[in-house]
Amino acid sequence: MTKVYVGMSGGVDSSLTAALLVEQGYDVTGVYMKNWTQDLPGMKCPWADDLADAKRVAVQLGIDFKVFDFENEYKQKVVDYMIDEYKLGRTPNPDIMCNQEVKFKIFLETALEDGADLIATGHYARVADGKLLQAVDTNKDQTYFLYRVTGEALTKTLFPLGEFTKPEVREMAKERGLFTAGKKDSQGICFVGQIGIREFLSQYVEQKAGSIIDKQTGKVLGQHDGAIFYTIGQRHGLDVGGGLPYYVVGKDMEMNEVYVTTNLNDDALWRPELTIASVHWINETPQPGEYQIRVRHRATLIATELSFNEGGSVNLHLGNAERAVAAGQSVVIYHDDVCIGGGIVS
RNA sequence: UGGGGAUUCGCCAAGUGGUAAGGCAUCGGCUUUUGGUGCCGACAUUCGGGGGUUCGAAUCCCUCAUCCCCAG
């Protein structure tokens, strides 16, 4: 009997994932990954509640349940990475790093060592022949967050939810009477939870006043308390009013200055061409040519001409310019339904 | 110091006798397993202060204050 370790977060998706695998005849073990347990000012970390929920469902399903403690790894590989990137003035995507380093690496390794044959998670994605495919529910597809997983890891991974839509998942969870059937979807960076990225960062970074400058006139419009807290395309949090809305179009980390404009067509806001580094291919390296890309989770796929640069970076010529693509964000590349990999915007 | 103009929510800005538009910002919510975007809702009993005219004024008159422009 195939032994599967299911990552259970205490949410509906992973709960149903475990239930489906049991029904499919696998020998299922539920695993709660303890990645972050710190409370933050103004927000209680929900890990204890999530753990309790995951455990309840495991009991309901009559499966074994374990807790894997990855707090150190998570702090180093995900949180520190995120903070370092922000300090460089970039805008990282910690959840992608979490999948690369924790769920599909340490968790996978630990599970295999512990006797598992396969692992499973509640991601909306599909695997076929070691390839990563978009979920049937394209509206909910989460392959964007998974492009840094290796093809080898995928051969040992099951994504049972990839065949269903979110409403179906909720319905099935309800039919089975799972404790978590009615639980609200989590959102935002898992560990940051309810508080914003800004509040989180200010725990680790010193706040320093700087100027908000109008790119068009050069006038100082106001003050902010750290260029690190702003990202390109951002509108809110500037506290600058009068006439049209202002959007962030750039920043200077050295000078601690944030540049804004009311011009929606500003060149800095639109990227018809992207260069990505730290490129990762799930399977084999693709040939230059026509592909589709996605610049953020849930964005529609857009046609792209892919070519390779000297030094390994990849150049992407977009069919339509994308708005507010920040350095540090990920571009994920698709060939029809297959997610073939991607890279990080330079 | 003469002459002219201005003063409406944190910001921009309608409104010239009939009982305070709108936009930005902000706050709250929705959307979303990243940042961000977007959407919805809330947001001046009050119009620089004080008098007066009028049934009734932000809108007319007087006066004080502040700011701006031209003369010096």
Outline the structure in words.
By secondary structure, the protein is of the alpha/beta class. The chain is built from seven helices and 17 strands. It has helices spanning 12-23, 47-61, 71-87, 94-113, 151-154, 166-175, 197-201, and strands spanning 3-7, 27-34, 64-69, 118-120, 125-128, 131-134, 157-158, 210-214, 220-224, 247-252, 257-261, 270-281, 289-294, 302-308, 314-323, 330-335, 338-345. It has a six-stranded antiparallel barrel with strand order 12-15-14-13-16-17. It has a five-stranded parallel beta sheet with strand order 3-2-1-4-7, sandwiched between helices. A four-stranded mixed beta sheet has the order 9-8-11-10, with no helix packed on it. Helix 3 packs antiparallel against helix 4 (94-113). It is globular. The model has no long low-confidence stretch (mean pLDDT 92). The structure holds one RNA strand of 72 nucleotides.
